[in-house]
């Protein structure tokens, strides 16, 4: 039966036959329109289509095929031949440009393409048919839109054989932005065993990064610079870390510009020495505005650094980072999102003369770092800041990039409280003195709301020889008690146990001693500034005698038998608009010789809230565990049902499915 006709295909989507939804398929070729005109004969008895001629139109380019197709359909067996002589490469590139493929987006080209190929084998899940024959490109020019550099004189010859591709010689010249011609590029490529490809390649010459920037960089990023290459490599493509490299490369004059970067990165330079065992990085330098750094490193399995998680083993890294001035706000991307997960083990040291990041401003930073896949640990860091010393350890877990986690153990030694608070809070001048503190902190999340919900901390801060006030809270206390000197309280020592949980800083059993007696406080301040405190003050008799005590007594204070002035207060409202009220019952308890019931009640309430929070977390963990066990049981039951069904099917004459094997 003779057959001829015209077929147009558009909206092509590729993927597994197991895909059930269109969104599960790769639609990068969907914008392309494939047109096929054919003439031939179909034998229904043998289910063979003999094509006298078939013309595949790709935009303005066309390719002729001939041969036979057995069992036409999704599992057809092909035996086709195609030839092309001096085809216009520009037409093929124009057609491919419509595809949503990064490597082709914005590419323009010219030159000639010739080929003599045979296509043999079945279609279907076992892989594509075999491609056998030759393909050549001659006198080609390739350039990405907007790129100041281009490739000229591109020529290559490719040989296709069953399960292999060989390009023994690739030649090109890179023309820079100024029109200068760099040292010609030459290279080779061998690929075998397409199911798990093994690649062997070589590349030599000078490369202008502007020519390949659109291929390797994000869409809005612009790269410039030159790299001198003399490289060879061999290994599994699915495990980039297994690719053994040898040779050398040198980068000079590199720059990076992007809307996502706060400043242009300039002065990129480095020397790389590759051996099958490791890569040595010497003098990797860069600067952005005032910031600059230099890195020396040794890396085994270097290409594993660029691989996706799970694609083979990690790289092993040893490094030293040095910087005279590093402001992360000048280097890190301005947009939020998941952090980059480094697939590496090993570690190194960092030495930074001055480090800034927003409100953080410290000097003489020394840090030891340990790398694991998705985890950065800092077992020891030390820096000078806020007229004191900060030291400790930290751990950053990026295993779930959408919800990174951090733990921190810090020791603050002899820091000036006002310098620290002035940098991080609006409370400049509120609290002065020498601060020592120990703190354990943990958080998880990538957004401010997630961090606020998950942030927990526990620690102890001690202040020596300082003052509290003036500020809204001490001002309101002085106003309520009619004791003006309380606007600024000098102290000998101040002890503040604290913990952070559920969006609040809880400071229970705070003690302050100084010229104005003993102060005890218990309560919490929320991240929104909300205050909830019980304050108990005992002003010694000699202090009370110096004061005009009639005003405080008239305002609501009480005196005990020893002449001490007793002040018990409730502090609520917010840090900027506090409210202070007398707690008469607490003062009467103390006059009667009993401990302040307000402090006891506040302490018990805070303990109860902690217990409730712990119980809630425990219940959530138990519910999650029960759900996981339930899913596992259901999965086991489903698996047993499938296996039983498969066995019965086989018993009664059907073929055993995979689940019954």
From TrEMBL:
The family database entries (InterPro entries) matched by this protein are listed as: AsmA, AsmA-related
Domain of life where this protein originates: Bacteria
Mind telling me which Pfam families this protein's record contains? AsmA
Annotated coiled-coil segments of the chain:
596-623
BP GO annotations: regulation of protein targeting to membrane
Q: Name one GO cellular component term.
A: plasma membrane
Task: Give residue ranges for domain AsmA.
Answer: 350-455
Q: Which PANTHER family match?
A: DUF748 DOMAIN-CONTAINING PROTEIN
This chain belongs to which protein, by name? DUF3971 domain-containing protein
């Amino acid at each position: 039966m003779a057959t001829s006709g015209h077929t147009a295909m558009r909206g092509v989507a590729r993927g597994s036959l197991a895909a059930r939804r269109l969104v599960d398929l790769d639609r990068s070729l969907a914008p392309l329109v494939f047109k096929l005109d054919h003439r031939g004969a179909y034998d229904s008895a043998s289910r063979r289509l003999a094509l006298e001629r078939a013309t595949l139109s790709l935009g303005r380019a066309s390719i002729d095929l001939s041969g036979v197709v057995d069992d036409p359909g999704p599992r057809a067996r092909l035996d086709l031949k195609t030839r092309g002589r001096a085809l216009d490469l520009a037409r093929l590139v124009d057609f491919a440009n419509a595809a949503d493929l990064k490597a082709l987006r914005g590419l323009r080209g010219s030159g000639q393409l010739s080929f003599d190929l045979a296509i043999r084998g079945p279609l279907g899940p076992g892989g594509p048919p075999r491609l056998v024959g030759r393909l050549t490109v001659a006198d080609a020019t390739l350039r990405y839109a907007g790129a100041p550099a281009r490739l000229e004189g591109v020529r290559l010859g490719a040989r296709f054989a069953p399960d292999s591709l060989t390009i023994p010689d690739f030649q090109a010249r890179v023309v820079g932005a100024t029109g200068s011609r760099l040292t010609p590029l030459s290279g080779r490529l061998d690929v075998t065993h397409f199911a798990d490809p093994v690649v062997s390649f070589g590349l030599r010459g000078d490369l202008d990064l502007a020519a390949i920037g659109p291929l390797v960089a994000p869409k809005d990023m612009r790269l410039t610079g030159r790299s001198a290459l003399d490289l060879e490599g061999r290994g599994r493509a699915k495990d980039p870390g297994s690719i053994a490299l040898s040779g050398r490369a040198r980068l000079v004059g590199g720059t990076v510009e992007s809307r996502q970067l706060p400043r242009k990165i300039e002065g990129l330079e480095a020397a790389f020495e590759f051996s099958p065992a490791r890569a040595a990085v010497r003098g990797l330098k860069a600067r952005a505005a005032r910031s600059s750094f230099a890195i020396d490193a040794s890396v085994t399995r270097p290409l594993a650094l660029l691989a996706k998680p799970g694609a083979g083993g990690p790289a092993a890294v040893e490094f030293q980072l040095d910087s005279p001035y590093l402001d992360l706000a000048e280097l890190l991307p301005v947009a939020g999102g998941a952090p980059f997960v480094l697939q590496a083990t090993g570690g190194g040291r960092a030495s930074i003369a001055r480090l800034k990041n927003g409100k953080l401003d410290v000097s003489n930073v020394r840090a030891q770092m340990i790398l694991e896949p998705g985890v950065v640990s800092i077992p020891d860091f030390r820096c000078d800041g806020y007229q004191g010393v900060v030291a400790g350890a930290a751990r950053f877990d990026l295993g779930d990039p959408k919800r990174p986690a951090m733990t921190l153990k810090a020791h603050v030694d002899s820091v000036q409280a006002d310098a620290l608070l002035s940098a991080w809070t609006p409370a400049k001048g509120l609290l002065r003195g020498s601060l020592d503190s120990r703190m354990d902190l943990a958080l998880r999340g990538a957004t401010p709301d997630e961090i606020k919900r998950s942030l927990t901390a526990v620690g102890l801060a001690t202040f020596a020889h300082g003052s509290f006030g003036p500020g809204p809270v001490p001002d309101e206390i002085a106003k309520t008690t009619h004791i003006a000197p309380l606007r600024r309280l000098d102290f000998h020592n101040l002890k503040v146990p604290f913990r952070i949980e559920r969006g609040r800083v809880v400071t229970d059993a705070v003690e302050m001693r100084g010229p104005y007696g003993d102060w005890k406080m218990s309560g919490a301040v929320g991240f929104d500034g909300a205050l909830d405190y019980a304050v108990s003050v005992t002003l010694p008799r000699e202090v009370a005698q110096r004061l005009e005590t009639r005003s405080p007594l008239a305002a609501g204070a009480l005196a005990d038998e020893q002449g001490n002035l007793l002040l018990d207060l409730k502090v609520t409202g917010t840090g900027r608009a506090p409210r202070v009220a007398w707690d008469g019952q607490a003062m009467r308890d103390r006059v009667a010789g009993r401990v302040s019931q307000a402090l006891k009640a506040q302490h018990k309430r805070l303990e109860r809230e902690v217990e409730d929070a712990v119980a809630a977390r425990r219940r959530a963990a138990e519910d999650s565990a029960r759900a996981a066990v339930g899913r596992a049981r259901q999965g086991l039951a489903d698996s047993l049902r499938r296996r039983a069904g498969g066995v019965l099917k086989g018993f009664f004459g059907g073929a055993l499915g995979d689940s019954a094997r």
